[in-house]
Write a structure and sequence with these properties.
There is one protein chain. The protein is an all-alpha fold. The protein has 5 helices and no strands.
Amino acid sequence: MQDFRYRAPQIAIHWLVAAVVLFLLATGMLVLAELPNNAQKVGNLRIHMILGGLAALLVVARIALRRRLPPPPPVQGETLGWLGHLALNLVVLLLAFSGALLVLQSGALDAVLGNGVLPEDFKQFLPRKIHGLAARAAIGLVGLHVLAALYHQLIVKDRLLFRVGLGFGKAGQSQ
């Protein structure tokens, strides 16, 4: 019989991606966006860039694992769930790609490496506009993802959260 849960590496990557993406969205919109483009911003930008690259690598690893390991049995709404995951993965990759383009186009890479200065304003660059729109889309998709998971757990009661490592006991047991 096929296991109801995802495999341990899939679960670990799921939660690691979630933590990194939430951190990036929060710090990007609440910290980096508010800081003036001066030398004090460079350290924060460096961390943001490194974690953005990590998020992209984790999403690629997650996709590779999903193709390599058999999925658990489907649940009600699986098609919508699949589309939601696809959208989240694509948006995270778009964020990483647009961020990388922005760093290259704006000259910020030189500043982060200690050989230049940040541009006066990132908003003049097209990849920044894409990055901002993708961040807002990511926030919306994360919100929908959380609401859908709670709906499944609390209304449908199919123990969906058990599949990603939350909850104990065997699938199908009452809580």
